[in-house]
Design goal:
The complex is a heteropentamer of chains A (about 500), B (about 130), C (about 100), D (about 475) and E (about 350). Chain B has about 130 residues and is an all-alpha fold. Chain B has helices at about 5-40, 65-90, 100-120. Chain B starts with 6 loop residues before the first helix and ends in an 8-residue tail after the last helix. A two-stranded antiparallel ribbon of chain D has the order 1-2. Chain D has helices at about 10-25, 35-50, 70-90, 100-120, 120-140, 145-180, 185-190, 190-195, 195-215, 220-230, 230-255, 260-285, 290-310, 315-350, 365, 370-385, 390-405, 405-430, 445-465, 465-480, and strands spanning about 60, 65. In chain D, a hairpin with a 4-residue loop joins strand 1 and strand 2. In chain D, helix 5 (about 120-140) packs antiparallel against helix 6, helix 14 (about 315-350) runs antiparallel to helix 16 and helix 14 crosses helix 20. Chain E is mostly helical. In chain E, helix 3 (about 80-100) runs parallel beside helix 10 (about 240-265), helix 5 (about 145-180) crosses helix 6 and helix 5 packs antiparallel against helix 8. The longest helix of chain E is centred in the first third of the chain and has 33 residues, at about 10-40. The chains are: A mainly alpha (about 500), B mainly alpha (about 130), C mainly alpha (about 100), D mainly alpha (about 475), E mainly alpha (about 350). Chain E: It is found in: Cell membrane; Membrane.
């Protein structure tokens, strides 16, 4: 029941928020909803047994029996941290936007809540039909978010985003169909349950069929993630989106979730697991390198952050391909950490844009003098992003790289190259934008307000906390990745 | 209709029709040939002019139909076709063990035809020269 | 007895003439007449088959299709009349507002 | 003795239609509004009667009519569309002195469609087919002084009568080769058809005949013009009703009667389906007239449904049948929403050149919130976004295509449906994102009611597909009892 | 006694048809003479008196005159249609004639109608053939390219399409009573009771509609000598006019026969009158033809008794009076049928 509540509260409040008239009502409604979700999620988190890898808090009702569709929810150690991430960041996101003036605030907050509900729905769904519905549902609010409140190129960006991810999810749907009918034909019973279908995958006879299903599903996930070369929607969409939209994009870790939850259990049973691993690893390594290099050449602060995000996502695929429990759990933790770091970074770039009217790094300079509070938070997160020890980014990257090195040393070597570049562009951007001589053309600048300080500061605190003590989430990730790895070991992969 | 269609009989009954048809087709031309042989010839331009009460004819006579004609024609075609459905039913109405259902259906049909008729009347579609 | 192939052949010829007329004519009335020709070729087929199959269905069907052809002609005339009233022509090429 | 109660829905409609016609003759123009209410109540009653008779099976009139799950399902589709049509037309026909003709023609067309759905004999099928067609020809040209409407009607009529001629010619061959017009009996006597080349000729003629009605490429050229030019409410009846009639007729003729020639027509339908959906979607992208865009999208949807002919499994057929119902709600709703916009535009400026131009949808989200929201739901449903009817039916249809091994077909269909999202999103963009300085207008109540009904239908199938897919499955079993 | 089989050979029947054609030519000539004399009598003058006793050979003289008149085709005319039209006119009446019995002989109680052919649907056939003449009339008018002609033809159209429907419905009523579409069987079905008694309304409607169909006064708006100068046939001269003229009179005779066959009991006589061989051969035909002549005279007399209708009156009469009346009659017949009469 609690899972349903967590999924439905944001959706229901989204509808209610749509009906509100003023900004005050809308943001209040949104805050109530997100805080309620946070409380429920925390309650669930504290009752979560991180020592077992099975699904917990399960709920199951019949929905369309003739097609084997059920309403099946449940969380395991892969989903729990991501739900937690969403639940934590969203109230702060609301706070962050507390004093903003924008058109149609009711729609704005409604879309934020709808995205939250849909994202949590994807993490909680244990039925492919439900999973796909929530998956597609994440698309619509974000599409509107970009195309209503986005930057100058919003139409282009929103359409590109929509087409890209829609095509990807349709291809994924093909994969789901393949899985569904293979099992239906084999057992004579239609069933769309995720754990059931995952367990049935190994009984498919045709190797080609297995590979096709795997690749179709994989395509859906990596486009959403995204990794090079399917990333080109992301810079446009992230950049054009309003800050809240960018943060929501970051919160939407459904691509990586799909890889851990669905791809990895299937991986050992494909006809050519080695090939799949190579694909994953190559995609990961290329993304890391490519993202870093492109980020280096960006002039726009937000665009730079976006490409650094591409680079970060490379670690997720690379870690998944590493196939040892350390690398896999590291990759999972990278998702969690990335969510925290990127939300602060986007918030910071949003604040800078609002204060100075530009995001071009060269036009900024010496902001630290005028915005000391922002400077502190930004330095912290930039350090986390480039992987400074003691912060979350470090934990994730070290686990991924060291874990993957056992199996895939070549790719890790390639990825290591990027670490230098990553450090370079982070530091360079920080130096040019925050420190140095203040650019007088920017005019009068005031520091971030207390709501923004509160939200960004608290998330930054969490980055520090989880960097020093990752075990509250890392434990359950480890449990699950060990489970996956042991499964593979049994298959001899 | 025990033997469903007796083709032979039907064809026989049309042989006289064919004979008469040939004669009917030939008769007018033959007559006209006879006339050509018997009648005098004299050329005069006025003789070959269209008659228009004695004055010199003006314009083309082949004017377009008044639209009302089409309305009438449509109404006629529809009613005539509806009568068509009555014929087969009429022949078996007596003494062929027709079911009551068929009679009721035909009455319904006639009622619907009547309905269309009332509609036409009321819409003044049957009024000559509005 | 006349072989049924002859009836079919005649029907096909009439049908083809109708189809050709429909394709090439641009006057609404002529197109309508072409369609009637095609319908009647089908009727010929139906009646011929009915007699060769010793089954009355075909004849009844022909009766119905005659009635439907009449209704179709009625609707067609109505539309063409409305067109004529508006444009003073029934040449269908003059109707080309709807293009993309 | 058969039970005339089984014909109660049709009889109700017939009596309503005649009553509307008669009452309308004696009413002054001002009070003709009541006709729309009578018609709507009649359709509602017929709908109720049909729903209560779900599950009955019977043969009537010497096996020429068959009451079964298939016929009842499609009757419900047609009645739903007719209900939306009549309700929306209450506003459209306001102050029109020929309202009684409009409503009765609509009802008669519905009767025709319903008889096609239950026809078990090619004769009945053809006659009913023509009944519906004739009524819709007249409806399409109802605005006698509007050149577009006339042109639409004329093109529709010309092509429609051509398709009738092709159909009849094809049927005559089938009758000649099998000696019967009874649909199941044709299947039993199909030996003559298979061995004779005339069988192929008949199949080609029938595909062309039905293809025109369903508007499959290359038999589609009338459809965009007609849907664009006709009054919008009529377009809803055409796209959502008349087209489904073609589909159910083709189901009966090809899948039941001509199953022996399966090899021949299956390939043709595969090609037609692919070409139709691709062409429809690609051309729709460039349209600026919403009705024309919906027309091309309707082509695409017909292409999707035609996949059922290729796949031919009970699941695929049930997908096609379910799609027909969903499409009935979605497309009728979309056209009615357009009708509301057209009404609004025309009431602001009577001489607007293109009342359904995309520009008139600017800022609709603010001007007509309910209409805009409904339109959004419809176009998203047409694109196949989850939790709408469009998704459910696409889910069943596409998945069954994969199940049967036609992966290539499913991939093409899925890519198409991704492409379609582009132009659907364009409508939403115009409605919500493009600015306008026009004022908010009050939304006409009848349109709103029709829209709300359609929205409920779309969402119901999306959220709770179980009963619908169950009945679609039952209907599919009528077509192929044992599966193929 | 059986009739020899040879009499039923279709070729022999065809020759019989040709004889009937000749007979009807004579009949038409007689009809023209009757018309002239009767109209003269009604107007209290003599009519033709010079050629032969009481002018009986007047028609022969007329024929000779027509044959020797010059055949003129106007230069504006459509020559092909102009020449072809008489074929249609004559063809229409001759083909009608094939199916109409000119009487019957009764031999040993068996009735043998005197007709070129006997078909199951003869009444439908006759109606169909009768309607062809309208096309001929229109061809004449259109090809002549004359305004009077075209006006006449338009009127002809309007009239014909109005009266065909009530005519058809009356025929259906008759067919219901007789249970057949075969005109011979219809005639024989009136053996005890003529249909005019059973459905007087139908008779009246039928006669009026038939008059209009034949273009007899008061329904000769297509000719209207006074205003349209013979209307549709204005441009026809000489024998070409003669052919159209003859076709009209043949149509008149055949129409009268139809009235007798459908409503006035045909050739049916009580059995004792026909039991004798000679009487059986002569009496039924004589009885039939006698009635035909009476009906014809009645129609001719009617010409001088009523004025011509205006075209709109004609059309109104058919659509607003005759059509409902014929439907009423149909209902009456169905009711009678359900009661078992």
């Amino acid at each position: 029941m609690i899972l349903s509540l967590i999924v439905l509260i944001p959706l229901i409040f989204a509808a209610l928020t749509l009906l509100t008239k003023t900004k005050e009502q809308a943001r209040g409604m949104a805050l109530v909803a997100t805080v309620a979700v946070l409380i429920l999620t925390l309650y669930m988190y504290f009752n979560f047994d991180s020592t077992i890898a099975t699904n917990q808090f399960e709920e199951m009702y019949q929905w369309v029996p003739s097609l084997g569709i059920t309403y099946h929810l449940g969380v395991d150690g892969i989903a729990m941290p991501l739900i937690l991430l969403n639940a934590i960041v969203l109230p702060f996101l609301i706070l962050y936007t507390w004093n903003d003036d924008r058109k149609a605030p009711n729609k704005f907050y409604a879309l934020i809540l709808a995205t939250e509900g849909a994202a949590i729905g994807v993490f909680a769904a244990l039925d492919f039909f439900l999973f796909y519905i929530f998956w597609e549902l994440t698309l619509i609010p974000l599409f509107f978010m970009v195309s209503i409140w986005g930057g100058p190129n919003k139409h282009h960006a929103s359409i590109k985003f929509f087409i890209y991810t829609h095509v990807a999810s349709l291809v994924m749907l093909l994969g789901i169909f393949g899985l569904y009918f293979a099992a239906w034909d084999a057992t004579g019973v239609p069933n769309l349950d995720i754990p059931y279908l995952l367990s049935q995958f190994q009984f498919i006879e045709s190797g080609l069929m297995k590979d096709l299903i795997f690749l179709a599903l994989l395509f859906g996930f990596i486009v959403k993630l995204p990794v090079v070369p399917f990333h080109s929607w992301q810079p446009d969409a992230y950049t054009e989106a309003p800050t809240a939209g960018s943060v929501l994009f970051v919160m939407l870790k459904i691509g990586g979730y799909g890889i851990f939850k669905i791809m990895l259990p299937l991986l050992p049973f494909t006809a050519s697991p080695d090939l799949m691993i190579t694909i994953l690893a190559a995609l990961g390594a290329v993304s890391i390198i490519y993202g870093a290099f492109v980020a280096l050449s960006q002039r726009d602060l937000k665009r730079m952050i976006v490409y650094s995000s591409v680079s970060h996502m490379g670690y997720v695929t690379l870690g998944a391909a590493g196939l040892v429990s350390l690398s896999v759990s590291g990759a999972m933790f990278q998702q969690f950490s990335h969510g925290l770091i990127m939300s602060v970074m986007f918030m910071a770039s949003g604040v800078i844009n609002a204060a100075t009217g530009t995001r071009i790094i060269n036009d900024l300079g010496g902001l630290a003098q005028k915005m000391p509070k922002l400077a502190v938070i930004m330095v912290l997160t930039f350090m986390a992003s480039l992987g400074l020890p003691g912060l979350t980014g470090f934990v994730a990257e070290v686990s991924v790289l060291s874990g993957t090195f056992v199996n895939l040393p070549v790719y890790v070597m390639i990825a290591l190259l990027a670490i230098v570049i990553t450090a370079a562009y982070h530091l360079w951007a920080l130096q040019r934008a925050m420190f140095g001589v203040f650019n007088e053309k920017l005019g009068t600048i005031v520091d971030i307000n207390s709501y923004q300080t509160l939200s960004m500061g608290l998330i930054a605190m969490l980055i520090l906390y989880f960097g020093l003590n990752p075990s509250p989430v890392l434990d359950m990730m480890l449990t699950n990745s060990e489970n996956i790895i042991s499964l593979m070991a049994a298959m001899g992969v | 209709m025990s033997e469903i269609i007796d083709m032979g009989n039907i064809i026989y009954s049309y042989i006289p029709v064919a004979i008469i048809l040939v004669v009917a087709l030939l008769m007018p031309p033959l007559t006209m040939f006879l006339v050509k042989a018997l009648s005098p010839r004299s050329k005069s331009a006025a003789k070959y002019q269209t008659y228009e009460a004695g004055s010199v004819p003006t314009g083309d006579a082949r004017i377009q139909f008044n639209v009302e004609y089409y309305l009438y024609a449509i109404a006629f075609v529809l009613f005539d076709i509806e009568v068509l459905f009555l014929y087969p039913w009429a022949t078996i109405f007596k003494g062929h063990g027709i079911t009551q259902l068929a009679t009721v259906e035909m009455l319904v049909f006639i009622f619907v035809v009547l309905f269309g008729y009332v509609y036409l009347l009321k819409k003044e579609a049957l009024k000559w020269m509005k | 007895m006349i072989p049924v192939e002859l009836y079919i052949g005649l029907a096909v010829i009439i049908f083809t003439i109708g189809l050709y007329g429909f394709m090439t004519q641009r006057s609404g009335i002529r197109m309508l007449m072409s369609v009637e020709l095609m319908l009647n070729s089908a009727n010929l087929n139906l009646v011929a088959f009915s007699s060769y199959n010793a089954d009355l269905t075909g004849q009844v069907f022909a009766l119905y299709s005659i009635a439907l052809a009449a209704c179709e002609a009625a609707i067609g005339f109505a539309i063409l009349m409305a067109i004529f009233r508006m444009k003073d022509t029934i040449n269908l090429d003059s109707f080309n507002v709807l293009r993309w | 003795m058969m039970d005339l109660m089984l014909l109660a829905p049709e009889l109700t409609l017939a009596v309503t239609g005649l009553a509307v016609l008669l009452i309308g003759l004696f009413l002054p123009v001002g009070s003709k509004k009541i006709l729309g209410f009578i018609a709507s109540i009649g359709v509602l009653a017929a709908l109720a009667l049909t729903v209560t008779s779900l599950g009955t099976e019977a043969m009537m009139f010497n096996d020429t009519l068959s009451i079964d799950a298939l016929s009842q399902f499609f009757k419900i589709v047609f009645l739903v569309v007719a209900l939306l049509f009549t309700i929306a037309s209450i506003k459209y026909m306001e102050g029109n002195k020929n309202a009684e003709e409009f409503f009765s023609l609509g009802l008669f067309a519905t009767i025709g469609m319903m008889f096609v759905a239950s026809a078990n004999d090619l004769m009945v099928l053809f006659v009913a087919f023509e009944l519906a067609s004739l009524a819709t020809y007249a409806l399409a040209g109802f605005e006698k002084t509007n050149q577009k409407s006339l042109e639409a009607s004329m093109k529709y009529f010309m092509i429609g009568s051509l398709s009738a001629a092709l159909l009849l010619f094809g049927i005559s061959f089938i009758y000649g080769m099998t000696g019967t017009t009874n649909i199941p009996a044709i299947a039993e006597n199909a030996a003559g058809l298979v061995t004779n080349p005339i069988g192929i000729v008949a199949v080609i003629l029938l595909i062309a005949g039905f293809g025109f009605k369903i508007a499959l490429v290359p038999f589609h050229m009338w459809a965009p013009d007609t849907y664009q030019g006709s009054p919008s409410v009529v377009s809803s009846l055409l796209a959502a009703g008349s087209k489904k009639m073609g589909i159910v007729a083709a189901f009966k003729v090809f899948i039941v009667a001509l199953i022996a020639l399966q090899v021949e027509w299956q390939t043709v339908f595969a090609i037609l389906a692919v070409v139709t959906m691709t062409y429809g979607n690609v051309v729709a992208v460039t349209q600026t007239s919403v009705k024309r865009m919906l027309a091309y999208s309707s082509l695409a949807q017909a292409g999707y449904i035609s996949m059922a002919f290729v796949v031919l499994t009970p699941l695929a057929l049930s997908g096609g049948i379910l799609y027909a119902l969903s499409h009935g709600f979605m497309k009728a709703g979309a056209f009615i929403a357009t009708a509301a916009v057209v009404y609004m535009v025309l009431s602001e400026n009577k001489d607007t050149e293109d009342p359904d131009h995309l520009d008139n949808f600017r800022g609709l989200g603010r001007r007509m919130p309910i209409t805009a929201l409904s339109m959004t739901i419809f176009v998203f449903a047409l694109a196949g976004i989850p939790l709408t009817a469009g998704f459910t039916s696409k889910f069943v249809l596409f998945s069954s295509t994969i199940q049967a091994g036609f992966v290539w077909l499913a991939v093409i269909a899925i890519l198409n449906s991704a492409l379609s999202l582009y132009y659907y999103a364009k409508i939403v963009k115009y409605m919500y994102f493009l600015p306008t300085d026009a004022d908010k207008v009050s939304e006409p109540l009848p349109y709103t009611i029709a829209l709300v009904i359609a929205v409920i239908g779309v969402l119901a199938i999306g959220f709770w597909p179980e009963p619908f897919s169950y009945w679609a499955m039952e209907a599919a079993k009528v077509l192929i009892p044992g599966g193929i | 006694m059986e009739l020899p089989e040879i009499l039923f050979n279709p070729l022999v029947r065809g020759i019989l048809g040709l004889c009937l054609m000749g007979a009807i030519f004579l009949g038409a000539m007689a009809a023209v003479w009757f018309e002239r004399k009767l109209s003269a009598d009604i107007q209290q003058r003599y009519g033709p008196m010079r050629v032969g006793p009481h002018g009986v050979f007047q028609l022969v003289a007329d024929a000779i005159k027509l044959f020797t008149k010059e055949d003129i085709i106007p230069k504006n005319a459509d020559r092909l249609l102009f020449v072809a039209a008489p074929i249609l006119l004559m063809g229409s009446v001759f083909l009608m004639l094939v199916a109409i019995p000119f009487g019957a002989v009764v031999i040993n109680g068996d009735t043998y109608p005197i007709a070129a052919t006997e078909m199951d649907i003869s009444i439908l056939y006759i109606e169909a053939m009768s309607s062809i003449s309208i096309v001929g009339i229109f061809m004449v008018a259109y090809s002549a390219n004359n305004k009077y002609s075209l006006l006449g033809a338009f009127r002809n159209f309007a009239r014909m399409i109005g009266y065909e429907v009530p005519l058809g419905i009356c025929v259906v009523s008759v067919a219901i009573m007789a249970g057949s579409l075969n005109i011979v069987q219809i005639a024989e079905a009136q053996s005890p009771l003529w249909f005019v008694v059973l459905q007087p309304l139908g008779f009246i409607v039928f006669v009026i509609a038939l008059l209009a169909d034949m273009g007899r006064l008061p329904f000769d708006q297509n000719e209207s000598e006074e205003e349209l100068i013979a209307g549709w046939i204005t441009e026809y001269t000489g024998m070409r006019f003669g052919l159209g003229f003859f076709a009209e009179y043949i149509h008149l005779i055949l129409g009268s026969m139809l009235i007798v066959l459908l409503f006035l009991g045909g050739w049916n006589l009580p059995e004792f009158l026909t039991s004798n061989l000679i009487l059986g051969i002569i009496l039924p035909t004589a009885f039939f033809l006698g009635k035909v002549v009476l009906v014809m005279l009645g129609i001719i007399a009617l010409r001088w008794a009523v004025p011509r209708f205006r075209i709109d009156q004609v059309v109104d009469l058919s659509w607003k009076r005759l059509l409902p009346l014929s439907l009423l009659n149909l209902g009456w017949v169905i009711a009678l049928g359900l009661l078992g009469v």
